[in-house]
Q: What sequence folds into this?
């Protein structure tokens, strides 16, 4: 049996008290819960404090560029759909620099899980506003306070009919790890947006701030299969912030739509294309 | 000895008039008759209207370029008369004078009522282009059955009715010409008896076919003229060979998706032109840093910015050589012809896999869209070498993706393999793939990566020398200018000029010593490039310390012709 220790990587370099520690533990716990072996997992990350996660894990990893997590994860999944592919990025990474990939990744629907460390700030570059920073937040750059309408990742994902849309909180590892496990099990693009306090640069959305506001969607009075209701729920932000699975629907994934994968993972297929077929292609030019 | 037949046919008209179809059908019909065909498309950036043309040169001897003279003009619009009548040399014009007004009268103007025949026979003026095709072949007394076979094949997908209407329209045009202008055409184009195994293929199709033959499994791209033909071709054959083709949301996604697929173990490629490549630049470095093999098809068009979207230039060589921050090894190959494109594409994949680096196939609009007559591609020459670790080698190994080795090439395993974890990083990393910012590690890793370049340098092929090994005048070219340059040399030789040509298709890294040996023999050198600043001449200077003495640079968006090169050379009084 695998244990959390099997996924333990190198020494962490995050600030003490960082919300990322909770995320790291939740990711490992979810993988163990699902019985995944380290060699079956590929973690693709962007650049940011969040992007360092692969270094603290033991599994296959591809530490990509800032904003570029979803496309390489998609390519890797298409090449070997036997892999469990997770993409991890920051809020700047995923919703800012990589925003186009987020939109079209949802449309393409590869079977990958996108885990976003949403600390509502640019951590690595020391405290500029991110696409999800709350209105009015002052930073060195946004000296008059943020005036751009915050991007609502859940509402955006639901508007695109993303197959799995959820929000977790790094302060609740159990809940978060069960969300991540569900997201991994979902076939298709799954989003786990995680509220994760940045203890140094975000003085507005602190651990306490989140703690006072978050509540869990309960199975008894919320069902994630109604897209309109989910959209409405996703707009809730402020005094009360819901956590859990907002929306889920099934449908064919990107890989389901690729006839080339019918004979098994591309990476496992023989490397030599059929000579008979190639000769036919050549003869079409004769 | 058989007389040389060498005929230039130009088909001019507005976009949407079916010029490309006439061009393709005529080319195929002549090629099926055992003749050599070289075809060039010239089109503007619009879907309808404007004046476009297709030029086909037909010969019974191998040919490598277009020529300036026209012997047969099919004028579907007035601009064809205005712009191309002057290019006619002992030639004839086929024109529908009911719709295209021609003021002058001449023996060589052949009026064929294309539109009314099309209406009568095909039931639509849409068949006017097929009537024209038939009329041309009727004038030339070229066997109709070859044409009807080609039409059947061309329109098969559109159904029997369309095939029949096309054949009937072509027949009507053919008969009209035979009846009204018997024996009046001064041009002879006869099929050659011998059966042949030659192909008629564009540069873009040859790259696509080369990639498929090399075992391409994943292509992601964002459409951009003139590169799109490769994506289109591969997509049209993807199902038959189990290939994934994905149109990405932008070029950054296109290249990073391909990098991800390659990391996970399949041969991957992206296709683009300069503007799209500009967006890919950071990810080029990602491939370099993570040591992930990737093939980038970069099809040049004149820039900067949107530039001349449908025209040709060799303006992105230095861009490809220097793109992305930092230093890492890369390889640049620039095919000369369609068959070269086929073989060099498969080589690109082997180099990418062997050295775990990005490899460019640097083409241009001229090569991309021109049709070449090639000997049947030889699949036996295609060797697929993946350079992956074997299962036995992995057994019990403590695998490290970036292990230091003498060659700098680290053994490559794939993620998903039991007992192995593959850790790749865009940060500077240690052998295991984790961030490491120490002095020793940085220097060792940089040396490891750049060491691969020295090794690759030794493996690069030498440029071909055409003509005598030693000559008082040496022309130097790279990539697609090969055809016009070779024919320019032939023209000059016939005029008694002692000249040779050194043509490069493996551009970077250059095997310095061996090339210097070749260049040492040269006296007067002229670098001939389709750009404004002589980029390849600068590469020769920077890499080899070699200075070319003269240059001919063309940056008007149009390709070279042999005649143009000869004229420019004589202006320079080097010949
Ligand atoms: C192309 C590019 N632009 C900018 C940067 C600098 N940069 C690195 S991380 C980052 C933002 C980090 O914010 P976020 O994605 O929210 O991650 P966090 O550090 O908060 O986890 C920026 C701007 C970069 N590495 N690459
Ligand atoms: Mg952040």
A:
């Amino acid at each position: 049996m695998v244990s959390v220790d099997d996924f333990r990587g190198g020494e962490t370099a995050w600030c003490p008290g960082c919300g990322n520690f909770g995320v790291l533990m939740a990711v490992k716990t979810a993988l163990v819960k699902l019985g995944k072996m380290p060699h079956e997992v590929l973690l693709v990350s962007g650049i940011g404090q969040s992007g360092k996660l692969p270094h603290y894990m033991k599994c296959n990893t591809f530490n990509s560029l800032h904003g570029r997590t979803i496309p390489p994860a998609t390519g890797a999944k298409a090449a070997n759909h036997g892999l469990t592919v997770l993409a991890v990025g920051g809020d700047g990474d995923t919703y800012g620099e990589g925003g186009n990939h987020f939109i079209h990744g949802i449309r393409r629907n590869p079977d990958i899980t996108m885990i976003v460390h949403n600390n509502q700030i640019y951590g690595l570059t020391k405290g500029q506003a991110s696409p999800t920073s709350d209105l009015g937040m002052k930073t060195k750059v946004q000296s008059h306070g943020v005036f751009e309408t915050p991007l609502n990742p859940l509402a955006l994902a639901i508007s695109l009919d993303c197959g799995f849309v959820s929000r977790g909180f790094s302060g609740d590892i159990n809940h978060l790890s069960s969300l991540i496990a569900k997201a991994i099990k979902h076939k298709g693009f799954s989003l786990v947006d995680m509220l994760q306090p940045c203890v140094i640069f975000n003085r507005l959305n602190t651990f306490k701030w989140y703690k006072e506001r978050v509540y869990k969607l309960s199975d008894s009075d919320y069902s994630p299969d109604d897209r309109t209701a989910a959209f409405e729920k996703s707009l809730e932000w402020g005094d009360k912030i819901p956590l859990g699975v907002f929306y889920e629907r099934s449908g064919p994934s990107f890989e389901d739509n690729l006839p080339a994968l019918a004979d098994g993972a591309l990476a496992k297929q023989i490397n030599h294309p059929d000579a008979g077929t190639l000769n036919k292609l050549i003869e079409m030019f004769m | 000895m058989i007389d040389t037949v060498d005929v230039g046919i130009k088909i001019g008209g507005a976009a949407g008039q079916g010029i490309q179809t006439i061009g393709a059908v005529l080319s195929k019909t002549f090629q099926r008759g055992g003749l050599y065909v070289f075809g060039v498309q010239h089109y503007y950036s619009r879907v309808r209207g404007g004046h476009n043309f297709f030029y086909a040169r037909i010969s019974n001897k191998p040919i490598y370029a277009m020529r300036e003279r026209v012997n047969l003009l099919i004028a579907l619009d007035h601009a064809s008369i205005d712009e191309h009548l002057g290019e006619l040399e002992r030639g004839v014009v086929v024109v529908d004078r009911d719709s295209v007004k021609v003021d002058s009268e001449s023996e060589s103007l052949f009026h064929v009522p294309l539109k009314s025949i099309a209406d009568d026979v095909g039931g639509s003026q849409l068949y006017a282009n097929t009537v024209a095709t038939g009329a041309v072949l009727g004038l030339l007394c070229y066997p109709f059955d070859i044409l009807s076979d080609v039409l059947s094949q061309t329109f098969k997908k559109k159904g029997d009715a369309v095939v029949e209407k096309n054949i009937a329209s072509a027949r009507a045009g053919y008969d009209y010409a035979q009846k009204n202008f018997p024996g009046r055409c001064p041009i002879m184009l006869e099929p050659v008896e011998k059966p042949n195994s030659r192909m008629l293929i564009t540069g873009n199709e040859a790259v696509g076919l080369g990639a498929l033959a090399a075992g391409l499994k994943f292509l992601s791209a964002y459409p951009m003229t003139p590169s799109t033909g490769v994506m289109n071709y591969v997509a049209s054959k993807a199902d038959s060979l189990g290939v994934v083709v994905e149109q990405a949301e932008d070029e950054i996604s296109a290249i990073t998706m391909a990098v991800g697929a390659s990391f996970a173990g399949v041969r991957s490629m992206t296709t683009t032109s300069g503007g799209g490549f500009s967006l890919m630049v950071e990810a080029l470095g990602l491939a370099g840093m993570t040591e992930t093999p990737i093939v980038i098809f970069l099809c040049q068009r004149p820039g900067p910015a949107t530039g001349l979207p449908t025209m040709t230039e060799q303006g992105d060589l230095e861009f490809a050589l220097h793109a992305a921050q930092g230093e890492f090894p890369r390889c640049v190959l620039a095919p000369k012809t369609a068959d070269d494109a086929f073989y060099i594409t498969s080589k690109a994949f082997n180099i990418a896999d062997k050295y775990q680096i990005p490899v460019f196939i640097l083409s241009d609009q001229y090569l991309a869209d021109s049709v070449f007559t090639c000997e049947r591609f030889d699949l036996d020459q295609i060797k697929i070498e993946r350079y992956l670790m074997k299962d036995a080698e992995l057994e019990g190994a403590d695998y490290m993706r970036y292990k230091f080795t003498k060659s700098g090439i680290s053994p490559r395993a794939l993620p998903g393999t039991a007992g192995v974890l593959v850790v790749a990083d865009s940060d500077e990393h240690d052998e295991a793939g984790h961030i490491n910012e120490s002095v020793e590690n940085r220097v060792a890793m940089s040396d490891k990566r750049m060491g691969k370049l020295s090794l690759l340098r030794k493996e690069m092929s030498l440029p071909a020398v055409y003509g005598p090994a030693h000559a008082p005048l040496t022309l130097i070219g790279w990539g697609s200018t090969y055809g016009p340059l070779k024919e320019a040399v032939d023209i000059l030789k016939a005029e008694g000029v002692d000249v040779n040509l050194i043509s490069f298709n493996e551009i970077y890294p250059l095997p310095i010593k061996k090339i210097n040996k070749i260049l040492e023999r040269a006296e007067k050198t002229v670098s001939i490039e389709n750009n404004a600043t002589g980029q390849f001449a600068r590469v020769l200077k920077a890499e080899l310390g070699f200075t070319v003495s003269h240059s001919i640079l063309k940056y008007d968006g149009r390709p070279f012709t042999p005649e143009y090169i000869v004229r420019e050379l004589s202006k320079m009084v080097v010949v």
Q: What stands out?
A: The two ends of chain B are 31 Å apart (CA to CA). The pocket of magnesium ion (ligand 2) is lined by residues A 48, 90-92, 119, 121-123, 130 (CB under 6 Å). Chain B has four domains: 6-180, 201-381, 391-459, 464-571.
